[in-house]
Structures are given as structure tokens and as C-alpha cells.
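[job 4417] fold queue: 2 targets
>>> target A
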Amino acid sequence: GFLAPSLGAMARASAADGNSRLTQQRALCELNTKALVALTAIPETDLRQKLASAPVNAQQSAPISVASVPAQTLAQRPDVFSAERDVMVASAQVGAAKAQRLPRLSLNGSIAGTRLTTGGVDTEGTTWSFGPLAVSLPIFDGGQRAAAVTASEANYDAVVSAYRGKVRQAVREVEEALINLASTEARTQDAIVSTKGYAESLAATQSRFGQGLASLVELEDARRNALASESAQLALALERNRAWVALYRALGGGFEPDMASKSAAK
């Protein structure tokens, strides 16, 4: 009877808020698990066993930093690689269209081998012939070949513009990922110091509350600050991991242009 009813209401509200946060976090974990099942095609039971047997330590994930990326690395992106091949095809089409406007000289011929058996005697010989000689002069075509050259050149310009757009988009995605990595790395130490400080403040407030030197309001404020700081640190670790994934994707992942070229040649 020596405490105000508002303190009891605050304690119940704090407990309910904590329980609500826990329920929400469990639901998010379940949703992520379902998404992993759909992504990996692994049975949910096996996936949960894998996750339980190999927990991820956020402090040890990607313990490196990247300040810059070589420009040629962007060539391994599938979209950039495909756009580059489109430019090569369009360039070849321009050359073919221009070649159609030039005079052409063609000569047909044949070479054949013969074998004749008469009275047990084999006679072998070779016959050959050539002709006729044909000359093509594309003069009177109503401008059809000239229009084909113009169309192929316009298509080449469009493909080059698309290729440049792909490269600019790739550079943008890489630079954004690098900026996010640098930002999260710069904020990590401050988040650690903040979490440690609020944890020490909470421990001191709990000690004072146990001795009757602090009120429940002060204790709840200290607990709320400590929880918010710890949540911010975990969110920062998640943001950094996502930045690594974004950088990996922006660089084309494990795509290998050489292997793609060999497959296309086959």
C-alpha cells in the first residue's frame, strides 16, 4: 500500500509491451523460415535442423571491408554481359548490311573422283569443272539496301544506348552497396558503445531500485533505453549483412562470362 496504483499499471504495461514484441519477433522468424523453405526447396524440418545446428554469429559475418571495386568486375554481371553481346550482334548486322551494297563476284565449280572397272582392271580418274562466272551489281534496288544500312545503324545506336544504361545502373548499384557498407561500418562502434552504456545504466538502476533508491519509472526508462539500443545494434548488423548481399548481387554473383560463352558456342 505504499506505492501508487500507476506504478502497478506501468509494470503491467511494460510486461505486455515486451510480450507483444516477443510475439512479433517470433512471427517474423517464422515468415523468414517459410521464405527459406520456398527459396531452397529444403523440407521445413530439415531446414530447421540446419538452422539450429549452425547459428550465425553476426559479429563474425563478413569480417572484411571493401573500399572500391575494379571496373572490369562489372563485366561479369549477366545483364551487362548480355547487353555487350547484343552490341556485338548489332555491329555485325551493320557490317552485313553494308556488304550487301557492294558488288559481288561468284564462281561455281566442282571436282569429282571416278573409278572404272573393266575386265578386272581398275581405272581411277578425276574430273573437274568451273563456271559460270557471275557478277552482281546492286545498283537499281529502289534504295532498299541503303535503307537496310540505315535501319541497322539505328538499331546499333539503340543497342549501344541500352548497353550504356545497363552499365550505369550496375555502377549505381555497386556504389550504393559500397556506401551502405561504409556507413554501417562507421556506425558499428558507436552502436556497441551505446548498447554497453545503456546496459550498464540498466544494471545500476536495477541495483538502486532493489535498495529503494530508484523508482519503477526510472527502472522502466532504463530498461526501455537498453532494449532500444540493443535492437538498434541488431538492426545495424542486419543492414550490414544486407549490404554485403546487395554488393554480391551488384557484382554479378558467381556468374562466369567464359562459361556462358562456351555454352553459347555449343
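>>> target B
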Amino acid sequence: MRFEVKLPELGDDAVGEATVSFFYPELNDTIQEGDDLVEMLTDKATFNVPAPVSGKVVQIVAKENDTLKAGQLLAVIETEKDRKSVV
């Protein structure tokens, strides 16, 4: 099953958007749930978005220096688990 990983809500203090610094895995790498997937930057903080599931990274949608709003697609992970998507 393909699992869409989206930028989570950034909290009340955030400006509502973050910039992609870099992805830790490369395309087709296998990752484990909880592994760091992508480093994001805001005007106030740097944070990592963890992989919500274990599987293979089959698509990296956001590129370095892309600025995204909460809920926008970062990547797609192919997994055996029967889940849909995470926001």
C-alpha cells in the first residue's frame, strides 16, 4: 500500500509553512517507522519529520528549498500495512 506523508500542522506559533532542507533517505531506500525522513526549516525552528510507517521511499515530491504549507505532500512510502495517509 502507498502511504502519503504530508507536512504536519506546525503549531500556533508557526507561520504555517516550512522549507525543505533535505531528505535523509534517497529514492528507493528502505526506512523504519520513526526514522527521520526530512529536515524542515521555519523562521523560528529546524525540525525533522519522522517516517510514520516502515517501508520503501517510492516518491519524493517536495524538493530542497521548496516551501510547503501544513498538509502538503512530502513523499510517498510503499508499505505492506493497510493504512491510508497521515497529515
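[job 4417] complete. Note on B: The chain has a mean pLDDT of 90.
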